Amino acid sequence: MSSIQEFPQVTLTDVYDQFSIGLNSSVIVTPNRRLAMVLQREFNSYQITQERIAWSTPDILPITAFIERAYEEILYSEQADKLPVLLSTAQEQALWEDVISDSDQIPILFSVPISEAAKLAREAWQISHEWQFTSKLRSFPLNDDCKVFRDWSKNYKRLTRRKNQIDKVRICDLIIELWKHIKIKKPDRLICHGFDIFTPQQRAFLNKLSEDGCEVMMTQSQSQLRLRTGNVQQVSCTDNRDEIHRAAVWARARVEIDNTARIGIVVQEFAKYRSEIIRIFNSVMEPDVQQALPGSTRRIIPYNISLGLALVSYPLVSTAFLVLGLAGKDIEFEFVSSILRSPFLVGGDTEMSNRALLDEQLRKRVESRITIEHLLILIERNQSNVNCPIFIQQISALAKFRKENLFGMQAPSVLARAISGVLQIFGFPGERALDSSEYQTLKKWHEIVAEFAALDRVVPRIGYIEGILRLHRMAAETLFQPETPDVPIQILSVFETAGMEFDHLWVMGLSDTEWPLCPRTNSFLPIELQRSAKIPRGSASESLELARRFTSEWSHSSDEVIFSYPRHGDERDDRQLTPSPLIVNIPQRELTLPTYKSHCDLIHQARWIEYSEDNKAPELDQTAIENCVSSGISVIKDHAACPFRAFALHRLSARGLESPHTGLDAMERGRLVHNVLEQAWRQLEAKSVLDAISDDDLKVILSNSAKEAIEHIQKDRPVKLSKRFTKIEHQRLVRLTLEWLHEEKKRSDFRVIAIEDKRSIEIGGLVLTTRLDRVDKLNDEQLIIIDYKTGARDPSVDTMRGERPDEPQLPLYLVASQPDATAVVFAQVKTGKMKFKALARDRDLLPGVKADPDWEQLVVSWRIDLTRIAESFSGGDAEVNPKKYPDTCRNCDLQSFCRIYERIESAYTELEDGT
Prior knowledge:
about 900 residues; alpha/beta; Rossmann fold; five-stranded parallel sheet; 33 helices
């Protein structure tokens, strides 16, 4: 590792003054692009403070960009035709993947994906060149992983030499060599700003510049000149959330005192806490930030997040990949659902409502995965119900385009044009105007597609699906953050603070477990080499030294510095944390912070609150009653479970979306069994016929009934019931129903007098439509009401008891339609567990069923309770009152509507407070 002290130093003020008077032959280089942008803004601010009205734009850029620019300048020399072609990052990755794929040593990677192995190998290649120990790898003792990398490196180097290509990490060495033979104009002065260390490769580059007459200098920061020793303190926080919240409140308070102050928030493990930081900072900064930013015409949240997200995580880009996935082999229907609801496609606004309805209806028929052809068929079948002409035209055009352009192997550049064609069919990025962030995201997306097209140099041919996967990896590996206005609060990661100065600085996460940073080594390079090169984080000692330098620089970089740490980890970690040894001697003080009102507080403060009773709906009038009767007895069942559920489902028509599934679900399987038994008993009619018929003839009846039932459901689900699956389901139905009918033979004589009996019944002022599986009449004229149960759970007659029965169908049918019936029966149709479970007036009505001594009282209570439930629903009772929390709510899809969990938590809080 090379020190920075050997170069002469200059202050930034002197540099700014030199630029101001026109000495523009100087170049300022920084370690990263962010610092270059900050330096550019600071230079402009300095010129304003000096009351200058015009000035030359300084040449400020990252050192890597400066080296690439030097390469581009050599391209205009006489030696340009001999220069190797510079590979992009994506091209480098593709070459490494090819090298590894062609290797016979993949098993040593222990199932690591090739793309990940290539990324790790590319990183090892960069480290070995930046720290100049590639030659040592030839003679150094190597373990198995290092030997594999050595072989890959030889093949990679041979491949790039044959194709006259070079990667970014090697152009620095190339330029140093070429400058000996090519006369290229160099800057008179190169000023390095924000560098804590130089790699040996950078040191060699700067030394070569110096030898050729360029004056290389280091900036001396204002903090070094003044040695700020202001208010440095240590703050202890409860946990990470408390730490973030305190930092947000502290930052807002500083902005309200001085909206021109520069405030830094440095975050350990930035990626881990990014979402939490945004949520908390938004809640603290809004809605009543008291001062607008200087020069702004609208309110702007005064903080900026430096860490970007993967490009693929932005909704606009994820929509593009969903559409591209639809053009592939098949796709999850949930992705199709997202396409239907996306605003980034033409029709997303004009057909919004119809597309939402189409999504809801397709879910009833579709498989969990779907092809574009099957999707088109389903949409056209559903066109009479929901009309989405734009979407239908898009899907039709995509199906045609797919056949003509997306099959076979083709060059990446050709495939990139096809990708643009697919998106153009859907009118991507939509019909509404994009905001600034979306526009920048779209621009970045176009850059990624262009990079993909440039893969022609390293990937001659690629298939559509493989190409989309590679493009997706490129977008996933690209971190992107839309540019925002210049704001006072900058939230940064540790390594982005190099060379930056603030008026106020808060560094969080400095606990004993997190600071210093853990060593981070590359497994493809010998650890001893990484240690000897003194690579930052290459060993525990180097990590400690790096942390010491950062801590020292932070301590002197601001007038106010706060180092904080959480006393507790996350919810899964109950350890007690202590401050890092590097800050333990800094005085710990209590931080006095203002209290800002939340949205809720401000609403209550406004005192414009209307109160209405939310557990009471208007009583049902005749029109409302007629609208509810089509729901059948589920009104009673839902109201018994929870009054709000019945209100939401049957008066507001609130429905959750169905989730597509593979094959048949339990409800569909049960419906098939019901249909087969219905057809069978329509032919048999009585037990005497069942006893007389042979098993072979009975199997014929059941087989025909099963075939008819399957054909009926197959009309709506043509893909779901394939030929092989249909055969298996047919055999299951025949076997199951035959076993059940053998159970029926154990009964005394009876006749089936009603099958799938549909009736209108009246109770408590409600007229409801009900359909019952079956009613049997015995020889003594007694009636038995039967309901088939085919689910996984064993039915229990106790579900028909109580003031709020879970299964009110049979009792309701009895009291409202067949008051003379003497038994209500669950027929459990389940392989190996065939049985009757019943509540009966008399014994021996069914095998194994005993008489209920309280039968008469049970019937009376049913009439009273069910009438009360019906009247409660008619009267508008809509209270959130689940019968048995949380079991009642477990399979309910209205939880986000009634907010049951918030209500329960609130009730518990009140009990704990004693109120």
